[in-house]
Design goal:
The complex is a heterotrimer of chains A (269), B (347) and C (310). Chain A is mostly helical and 269 residues long. Chain A contains 11 helices and 2 strands. Chain A is 77% helix and 2% strand. Chain A has a two-stranded antiparallel ribbon. In chain A, helix 3 (60-94) crosses helix 6, helix 3 (60-94) runs antiparallel to helix 8 (178-206) and helix 6 (136-161) packs across helix 8 (178-206). The relative contact order of chain A is 0.12. With 347 residues, chain B is of the alpha+beta class. Chain B folds into 2 domains: 5-226, 3-Layer(aba) Sandwich (Rossmann fold); 237-342, RNA polymerase II/Efflux pump adaptor protein, barrel-sandwich hybrid domain (OB fold (Dihydrolipoamide Acetyltransferase, E2P), Beta Barrel), CATH 2.40.50. Helices cover 29% and strands 32% of the residues of chain B. Chain B has 10 helices and 18 strands. Chain B has a 6-stranded mixed β-sheet, with helices on both faces. Chain B is elongated, with a radius of gyration of 24 Å. In chain C, helix 2 (13-35) crosses helix 13 and helix 4 (55-87) packs across helix 10. Chain C is mostly helical and 310 residues long. Chain C has a two-stranded antiparallel ribbon with strand order 1-2. Classes of the chains: A mainly alpha (269), B alpha+beta (347), C mainly alpha (310). Chains A and C meet through helix 1, helix 3, helix 4, helix 5 and helix 6 of A and helix 1, helix 2, helix 4, helix 5 and helix 6 of C.
Chain lengths: 269, 347, 310
């Protein structure tokens, strides 16, 4: 039903304008608030300032939180890549029978909300032989599960689109060892797809609040925790944080989109 | 012979390209006319214009003495069968068939009766409660046919109805469609790009190219008297000759045309003893050599080079031994009366 | 061959370890925790009984169910209409609209709650503006109450509903519409007899995801109303203060209840996906192929679901 370009009628246009207003209004308000000296009872603020941004960047806690977030997300994503790449490859290529089981494993993080996962994790690891509750390790483990679906789907789809099995077989017939074939032939071909899931995972983790707050909220301050703590103090400062955070996410999604377009073109052409 | 459906100077453009140029066509009641042509020739667009699924930029469509250009599709009383069936996936076979009658407010009893009749016609009574996705392509297309017939449309449009099916089903379904069409005396327009299919099902064929009807007539007329090079080439294995090639083969030609066509089966390969009788019959004898042989079932097709002209020659496969490529010199008997002068394109 | 393969399977070990340690173990631990006696061995369902008898926790459960059902229902209607509307635009505008929706679906949790406080909180821009202009429609509106929560929940559910439903509109073939038109069906008839029935599995499937999303939503509610509003997720969170569970068994029981509801919803989604695959199992034509290519980034759609689930 979607093919040729259509002229959307005025009903559709006004509907979409309304929707976009609805969706963008909160963002816009935050943006204005971040640049407003004060904003009360007028449509637009009367005086503008960059004070909140400079305050934010001069706050050592913000810089710390930013680093903590980047650091934790990077480690978790890297760990996930290291574990998932070989695993998904082996399952897709050699153990297709496992795929039903994998679908279940992958859907579980959707079905088990963060609060529930946190309760389970704390009970499992607060005492006993492995007592890692409250440490970064438990958080990295939890993050691994959070991004599991994206990593699995992304890697698997890439493997299927480039028909990895055929690639691998031809490389082996041409004399490459299996590991070499994987490294030289399969990996470079699935790389763009894997990059997309990596970036997606990164942005998901960057916005993670529930697990972080419940598992290590007291000790480790990621950007989301920092934001939550500053909410009560200064609204303007908090908006500056939200906006910076959002710009970062936006940049990530733009890169993601470009990559996806590039990939799709690759598949088509 | 008054026209039941008449197209008068139909024009349609996409941007600056003309997809339909002044199409004129008259169809009698109960007639099956085929629009034949290569993909992109405008045949499906024309069909969609008749159905009202696409707008036209000029011209008239007169159905049963009424101009229907401004009538919306659902009031045109035109049925259509699509290449990819277009059955509603959420309804059973009989619900699909009854859909149109339901929209027209027919009673439940009437609907049931009619759908049972049609189920019998398409021989699918045992599938009445099946869902489309449980049927094969051929079965789905038969249901689609029954669905369009259920509302007794004035005209039935078939848009490449067989193209999505495999060869075997395509052959049986095209005869079935023709039988059903005759039985209901249904005025029908059939769109296809397959020449053989067009010839088998139609009363009349319109060959289209680049948005125009280039030749129209009975299958026989179209096959034996192609007017232009495009028609000759589209008919299949016709040998199309330039003027100088024709001169080389025939010595002289009376007609002043720039190109000529000769049918592959009108050229005879001569054995030694035939030569005299052929000469006596006034045929042109040319020497040549065989380049390749292929067997197409009941026909043997030779590619022959004679007087530096490459000709295709079809001979009935009557059990006589094949002539081989190694055996060089052979003679051809050409019949001058079979050399058809072709008009220039667009003339 | 055999030996070579065995060596390759070693690559699965870290993966299995991570799944067992951080996915299976916590769930098992939570389940056993919910039926373990406070001191000593044995199984007890006493804590379940305690929850079911406590009007306080029952209220939390019903509140959560209500807000999830209502926000999902509103979002699905808006999402359905808007997703259809998007399909009526040219591909370029379509992509733009989808990108914006996708972007705002990232806008959830704490930042979202905050944005709404700026707009509609007690000193919010709109609150003050409306007061000044003398509009009393919003006089009784309180962001930190039931209606406020619904408003914010609907906000983060709409883009999700839209993104999840959008691809299924591509499953509706142009030919069905044309065939229906030629058979005498108008626009409304088409949607009521063919369009909506075909979309039904997708609608219920999406409802499942939306419901699970709202049930598990913690960050938004936590940032907006703190512990003040009695919701299941917030209740669980407050039983877990700084990596120690105050009343561990109760927390476990509530977590099991929550997980059961979301699991059920996701299961519904799974079943419905199978159903809709049946509808689209017919021989493929252009639109279906286009839809398949698009689904390349499919995980990105439920991805946003996760945003709130986690």
């Amino acid at each position: 039903m979607i093919g040729q370009a259509k002229k959307a009628g005025w009903v559709n246009r006004s509907l979409m304008i309304a929707l976009m207003c609805y969706l963008l209004l909160p963002l816009l308000a935050t943006l204005i608030y971040a640049f407003a000296k004060e904003w009360q009872a007028t449509v637009l603020p009367e005086r503008w300032t960059l004070e909140w941004f400079s305050q934010m960047f001069s706050d050592a806690r913000f810089i710390d939180a930013l680093w903590t977030s980047l650091y934790l997300c990077a480690i978790s994503v890297a760990l996930s890549l290291a574990v998932m790449l070989p695993a998904v490859f082996i399952i897709t290529v050699y153990l297709p029978k496992w795929e039903t089981f994998m679908k279940g494993v992958v859907v579980l993080p959707y079905a088990v909300p963060g609060v529930v996962a946190a309760v389970g994790l704390i009970r499992a690891y607060s005492s006993g032989p492995v007592s890692i509750a409250g440490t970064p390790y438990i958080l990295i483990g939890a993050y691994f599960i959070v991004i599991l679906p994206y990593m699995y789907q992304g890697i698997r789809n890439s493997l299927l689109t480039v028909s990895a099995v055929d690639l691998l077989n031809s490389a082996e017939l041409l004399g490459a060892s299996r590991t070499r074939a994987f490294a030289n032939v399969v990996l470079p071909n699935i790389w763009p797809g894997v990059m997309i899931s990596t970036l997606l995972s990164f942005s998901v983790l960057f916005g993670e609040f529930v697990l972080t707050n419940m598992l290590v909220g007291g000790h480790i301050h990621t950007i989301q925790i920092y934001l939550y703590q500053r909410l009560g103090e200064s609204g303007h400062l908090a908006s500056a944080i939200v906006i910076s955070y959002f710009v970062f996410i936006l940049a990530l999604s733009l890169i993601l989109m470009k990559l996806t377009q590039k990939m799709n073109r690759g598949i088509q052409g | 012979m008054s026209a039941y459906l008449e197209l008068q100077a139909i024009r349609k453009q996409y941007g600056h390209t003309n997809v339909l140029n002044d199409i004129n066509l008259q169809i009698r009641e109960g007639e099956l006319v085929t629009l034949l042509g290569p993909s992109g020739c405008g045949k499906s667009t024309l069909l969609r214009c008749i159905a009202g699924l696409a707008d036209i930029d000029g011209g008239k469509i007169i159905l049963d003495n009424k101009d229907i250009v401004n009538v919306p599709p659902r009031s045109r009383e035109i049925g259509m069968v699509f290449q990819s069936y277009g059955l509603f996936p959420n309804m059973t076979v009989s619900e699909n068939i009854q859909y149109g009658m339901k929209m027209r407010g027919a009673s439940k009893e009437e609907r049931r009766k009619r759908s049972e009749e049609l189920l019998a016609v398409i021989d699918m009574e045992d599938k009445r409660n099946a869902y489309p996705q449980q049927l094969s392509g051929g079965q789905q297309q038969r249901v689609a046919l029954a669905r369009s017939l259920a509302v007794q449309p004035k005209v039935l449009l078939l848009d490449e109805p067989l193209s999505a099916l495999d060869a075997k089903i395509r052959k049986s379904l095209r005869t079935e469609i023709r039988e059903i069409q005759k039985r209901f005396q249904m005025t029908t327009i059939f769109v296809t790009h397959d020449q053989e299919e067009a010839f088998i099902v139609s009363d009349r064929v319109c060959l289209m190219n680049k948005g125009s009807i280039v030749q129209e007539g009975s299958p026989e007329e179209l096959y034996t008297r192609p007017k232009t090079e495009f028609v000759a080439r589209f008919m299949g294995s016709y040998n199309v000759l330039t003027k100088s090639e024709a001169l080389r083969l025939f010595g002289q030609v009376e007609n002043q045309a720039d190109s000529f066509a000769i049918r592959p089966e009108s050229v005879a390969l001569l054995g030694g003893e035939d030569r005299q009788s052929a000469l006596k019959a006034g045929k042109q004898i040319v020497d040549g050599s065989i380049e390749s042989v292929s067997i197409l079932g009941s026909i043997i097709r030779y590619a022959v080079n004679a007087a530096d002209v490459r000709l295709t020659i079809d001979v009935l496969n009557d059990g006589r031994p094949l002539r081989q490529t190694e055996v060089g010199g052979i003679s051809l008997a050409l019949d001058r009366s079979q050399l058809l002068p072709l008009e220039k394109e667009g003339a | 061959m055999k030996r070579r393969n065995r060596w390759i399977y070693a690559g699965l070990i870290p993966f299995i370890f991570m799944i067992a340690a951080f996915q299976i173990a916590p769930i098992l631990s939570m389940l056993t925790g919910s039926v373990a006696r406070e001191n000593g061995p044995g199984i007890t369902f006493g804590f379940y009984a305690q929850v079911l008898q406590s009007s306080y926790y029952l209220k939390a459960i019903t509140n959560s169910l209500l807000i999830s059902i209502i926000s999902s229902a509103i979002a699905i209607v808006i999402g359905l209409v808007c997703a259809y509307s998007i399909t009526r635009f040219s591909p370029k505008i379509r992509d733009l609209l989808l990108t914006i929706s996708n972007m705002t679906s990232n806008f959830a949790g704490v930042p979202l709650a905050f944005a709404y406080i700026i707009l509609l909180g007690s000193n919010g821009v709109f609150t003050l503006l409306f007061k000044q202009w003398g509009w009393d429609v919003f006089q009784n509106f309180n962001l930190f109450s039931w209606s406020g929560l619904i408003l914010v929940y609907v906000y983060f559910q709409v883009p999700l509903a839209l993104l999840l439903l959008y691809p299924s509109f591509f499953g509706i073939r142009e030919q069905w519409r044309e065939a229906a038109a030629l058979l005498g069906a108008g626009k409304w008839k088409f949607w009521s007899t063919i369009g909506l029935p075909v979309l039904t599995p997708a609608i219920f499937g999406t409802l499942g995801i939306l419901f699970a999303n709202a049930m598990g939503a913690y960050a938004t509610a936590y940032a907006l109303v703190g512990g003040n509003y009695n919701l299941l997720a917030v209740r669980i969170g407050s039983l877990v203060a700084g990596n120690v569970i105050n009343q561990p068994q109760l927390g476990n029981v509530l977590a099991v209840v929550l997980a059961a509801s979301t699991l059920l919803a996701v299961y519904l989604n799974h079943k419905m996906t199978q159903r809709s695959r049946m509808f689209n199992g017919a021989p493929s034509s252009e639109p279906v192929r286009a839809h398949k290519r698009r689904s390349w980034l499919r995980p990105a759609a439920p991805a946003s679901a996760k945003e709130e689930l986690s």
